[in-house]
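User: I'm putting together a teaching handout on how multi-component assemblies are represented. Below are the sequence lines for each component of a complex, exactly as they appear in our records. Could you produce the 3D structure of the whole assembly as structure tokens, so the students can see both representations side by side? Please keep the chain order the same as the input.
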Amino acid sequence: MAYSDKVLDHYTNPRNVGTMDKNAGEVGTGLVGAPECGDVMKLQIRVNPETKIIEDAKFKTFGCGSAIASSSLATEWVKGKTVEEALAIKNTDIVKELSLPPVKIHCSVLAEDAIRAAISDWKKKQA
Amino acid sequence: MSEQNAGLKTAPMQLQVIQERQLSQHQCWSCGDMRAEHFCAACGHMQPAEPTDFFSFFGLPRKLEVDEAALEKEFYQLSRKLHPDLYSRASAREQHWSLEKTSQLNDAFRTLKDPITRTEYLLNLEGIQLEEQSKVATEQARAFGVEKKQTVPAELLEEAFELNMMLEEAKAGGVDDDLRAQLVATRDSLTARLGRMQDELRAAWKKWDNGNRAAIDEMVDVLNRRSYLSNLVRDLQEVLS
Ligand code: FES
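Assistant: Of course. Below is the structure of the complete assembly, with chains in the same order as your input.
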């Protein structure tokens, strides 16, 4: 499979790989999987309690190049956005940005799922 | 042409191989008789290649309990009888059919001989798009502003993630004897779990074969959980070898 330049860039030079303390109150963690291929992805966000802006994001993905690139891109995109703005990110935006082929759509879905799961984990902690 | 076709006279015998054939009756293009499946029962001529699902290609009902040994035997017999070499001097359309049918045969056998791909294929025929399930669920969750339910239990995802972390460290830091023993034990227990999933799948097959459509959801569930475990076994194997 030929990866696009942007995928290759994120794949060889992934941004924001790492983990945060999942027990911290301002951290939201999303751990999601793609049943299609059995790959897993964890994405974490740190949210400023006052502004609700996502100040930092980290990911760790065990999966294909497209999944790594999608999650790397997702962390870049959510940073600096408010939680509500981040919820507007769709997998199709990622597909477009990375020029993913149809067979790799589920990899981008994984990244959207991870963002949403991280946000909902964070929201639960605020309740 | 007559020479090649002489070999095809055995066609009626071939029909006895698999009992549960659903015989589709068409008129033979060559002799006008009513024929069944790949060869005319009366004159033995190969019949036109038609688009067909893989179960029908083998004359099988859409059931999942398949006698794999009989299927394999059938495959070898058919590949001999449909072989393009036999038709090198036949009419252009027969040459074409033989190529076409041979490629159908190979695809059908490859798909049906394996329990997992067979199940996936059947689900697909029944309108279940395994490849699409995540996307569809995500779109629904997004549209309704609700949290998407992961298709497998959270513990399984945790387990897969943790094990992957461990494997990554093992790859970077090397595997000493203790770690190796631990990884071997993990691999063996995962393999045993995969075996139990196979049993679950077979139980669902039985239901399906008896006409219970609820079995579809069970099969999807097993296949989903299975894909995580089989990845892990594969990756463990890679580190261990
Ligand atoms: S192939 Fe599994 S996430 Fe891409």
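A couple of points students might notice: The domain at 5-126 of chain A is CATH 3.90.1010.10 (Sufe protein. Chain: A). Chain A has five helices and three strands.
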